[in-house]
Design a protein that fits this description.
Blueprint (H helix, E strand, L loop, with lengths): L12 H4 L6 E3 L2 E3 L7 E5 L3 E2 L8 E2 L2 E2 L10 H6 L9 E2 L2 H13 L4 E4 L12 H8 L2 E4 L11 H4 L3 H13 L12 E5 L6 H17 L3 E4 L6 H11 L7 E3 L9 H8 L4 E4 L19 H13 L6 E3 L19 H12 L4 H16 L8
Parallel strand pairs: 3-8, 8-9, 10-11, 11-12, 12-13, 13-14
Antiparallel strand pairs: 1-2, 4-7, 5-6
Length: 367
């Protein structure tokens, strides 16, 4: 199957060969010292309609309810049942939300929306310029249910070539390159297509030296299964983030077993305080529980491997719609972590140093 991508890119071959030691934002390569406080797993302009879960609440179908104050209860309880909640498409809205994040002390956002989740990535440069926030754009493939039939027919080599092209040359219709591979979507158990997608991401990481981030399936075994695939395909596990551990591994001993494997350990659902989780039969932890798990990892010597974010991908979590916004961790969680006995320096290292080390391109290991 042949595949032709049309790329508009303002990067010369010379520039593309000097990524090692740099971080790639939508405005170009920057020195890691310029990164600042970073959220490593967010979404900006995004469409998530394929996740719609029709639900009846108070004896009515809530698919078409409006995002109004009187509907906040049902929206917070069933966020994936309200169709209009599953898209964020206004650049002005995103810009205003990022400006609030900037005021709170933030500097950088990783928009890890893979191909099927993106909405108008060409607008990200203007949003970054207007908000004065660095944006790093992801690439690759999300879970099987979000893949097109064309994607499902691709070989791992074809998938890898498409990812490499977006990292080294640019994203179709934009003037910039991806600065991170992922979030690569996985189900539990992995589908055949998702396995090829993981293998492709590993190939692309070896060729480009780019950071890699994974969306695991919703079972405690999934992160372990994913690492087996990645390791067999030659991925650099130490340069890889495993996302969503707050809804995936609850047992502390199992968490320590996974931590020993060497990935970054991401707690990225801060602000999701609804215990009813629509996508799995588990109790979504509270922010207080997330803090305690991070404290446990720090006490066990894993401070340098922890990441934090919100994974905002629905309107109701934005400040404009009554939500916590991208500044929630800085405004509310950091002070609470300090109150709970975590050194402020350790918290700031998680938000700055760990992010910087992960996002910095390393020397490619193959051509």
């Amino acid at each position: 199957m042949s595949r032709t991508l049309i790329i508009s890119c303002n990067k010369s071959p010379t520039e593309m060969s000097t990524d090692t030691g740099k971080i790639i934002t939508v405005k170009g390569a920057i020195d890691p010292a310029q990164l600042g406080i970073t959220l490593t797993h967010e979404h900006l302009l995004v469409h998530f309609e394929a996740a719609l879960q029709p639900t009846r609440y108070l004896d009515r179908d809530v698919t078409d309810v409006q995002l109004k104050l009187e509907n906040q209860g049902v929206i917070r309880q069933y966020p994936y049942s309200v169709k209009s909640n599953l898209t964020i498409t206004s650049p002005d809205l995103v810009c205003s939300e990022l400006q609030l994040y900037k005021i709170a002390g933030g500097s950088t956002i990783v928009d890890c929306s893979p191909t099927s989740l993106r909405y108008r990535p060409d607008l990200l440069v203007d949003i970054s310029q207007r908000s004065d926030v660095n944006i790093i754009c992801g690439c690759g493939y999300y879970v099987d249910a979000f893949m097109s039939e064309e994607t499902k027919m691709m070989t791992k080599e074809e998938m890898a070539a498409a990812i490499i092209q977006e990292v080294q040359e640019g994203i179709k219709g934009t003037t910039f390159r991806s600065g991170v591979i992922g979030e690569i979507g996985c189900s539990s158990p992995l589908t055949d297509t998702e396995t090829r997608s993981l293998q492709a991401a590993a190939i692309a990481q070896r060729v480009t030296g780019a950071p890699l981030i994974i969306h695991p399936g919703r079972s405690p075994e999934s992160p372990f299964q994913i690492l087996k695939v990645l390791e067999a395909a030659g991925a650099d596990i130490s340069h890889t983030v495993m996302s969503h551990l707050d809804r995936t591994i609850f047992d502390k001993e199992q968490l320590l077993q996974f931590a020993k494997r060497g990935t970054y350990l991401e707690y990225d659902l801060f602000g999701m305080e609804c215990s009813h989780y629509q996508f799995a039969d588990v109790d979504m932890p509270s922010d207080a529980q997330r803090i305690q798990m991070i404290k446990f990892l720090i006490d066990q010597g894993y401070q340098q491997r922890v990441m934090m974010a919100h994974d905002i991908h629905t309107k109701h979590r934005l400040v404009h719609y009554g939500g916590h916004g991208y500044g929630h961790i800085l405004r509310n969680i950091v002070p609470k972590m300090v109150d709970r006995g975590i050194e402020r320096e350790a918290v700031m290292n998680i938000l700055t140093q760990n992010s910087k080390e992960w996002l910095t391109f390393i020397t490619p290991t193959t051509n």
